[in-house]
Amino acid sequence: MQIRVLGCSGSIAAGNRTTSFLVDGSILIDAGTGVGDLTLDEMAAIDHILISHSHLDHVLSIGLLADSVTRRREGLPPVQVHALPQTIAALRTHIFNGVIWPDFTRLPSVAHPVLAFEPYAVGQVLDLEGRRIEVLPAAHTVPAVGFAVLGSSGAWVFTGDTGPNAALWQRLAELPVSMLVIETAFRDEQLDLARRSGHLCPQQLEVELKFLRQPTDVYITHIKPGEMDTVMGEIAAQQTRHRVSALQTGQVLHLAS
């Protein structure tokens, strides 16, 4: 399997795109601004969108993608948008409401919409076109999850937006983790802000990674624009057995099917 990083920044600026990953061309994990770098044909090939939570930097491209691919997907089944029931309710109420954006679960017609919402639960394993993706717990300010893309010899794990998360490490202790994508949104001097906003800073990350049992390739995501050097410098000063680097937009990761 191929996992293409479309965006991995905590916000926007030149060269910074918010969270989105493309799995084998047809599955989108989160729908941040990075989706806008896909061609129309690439967007039209997406059959499933998995949403970790309702915050704008993770969902804002769902409606724009739907608008862009309406004609190209004519005659095809709707794009399945998989999310927690609470996230689906937030999307219906606050985005696909005819005020912020048209309701593409009823357009171009009720019988043949571009989008369809599909609820999932934490712990559920989704089978999407032969790819198995487990829904993992996250600890954020709104209902949220992470994901594990399950391969033949290991898992690619994305924590989603999360603060300290004991439930995650309990589950990962049972999985062969090949790659871990974990957020670190703030520098250490912003520890209080990280705690209040359900994110991590480097000193919290250091504690969290001690629960990861085997040495693992760890990729840091969701760093705010302009903070990369500071955050990664603070992480580099830590003692860890893991191989830690900053995730990059455009990076392609490979996982054995």
Describe this structure as you would to a colleague.
The chain is an alpha/beta fold and 257 residues long. The protein has one domain (2-254): Ribonuclease Z/Hydroxyacylglutathione hydrolase-like (Metallo-beta-lactamase, Chain A, 4-Layer Sandwich), CATH 3.60.15.10. Helix content is 23%, strand content 26%. It has 8 helices and 14 strands. The chain has helices at residues 40-44, 56-59, 61-69, 85-94, 166-172, 191-197, 202-209, 228-236; strands spanning 2-7, 20-23, 27-29, 48-50, 79-83, 115-119, 125-128, 131-137, 145-150, 155-158, 177-183, 217-221, 243-246, 252-254. The strands form 2 sheets. The protein has a 7-stranded mixed beta sheet with strand order 6-5-4-3-2-1-14. Helix 7 (202-209) crosses helix 8 (228-236). It is globular. The termini are close together. The model has no long low-confidence stretch (mean pLDDT 97).
* Percentage of residues assigned to helices: 10-25%
Low-confidence stretches: none
- N- to C-terminal distance: 6 Å
- The CATH topology assignment is Metallo-beta-lactamase, Chain A
CATH superfamily: Ribonuclease Z/Hydroxyacylglutathione hydrolase-like
- The total of helices stands at 8
Q: Major beta sheet, specifics?
A: 7 strands, mixed
Q: By helix and strand content, what is the structural category?
A: alpha/beta
SSE pattern: EEEHEHHEHEEEEEHEHHEHEE
Which geometry do the CA atoms define?
globular
Rg (C-alpha, Å) = 18 Å
Describe this structure in a few short sentences:
This protein has a 7-stranded mixed sheet with strand order 6-5-4-3-2-1-14.
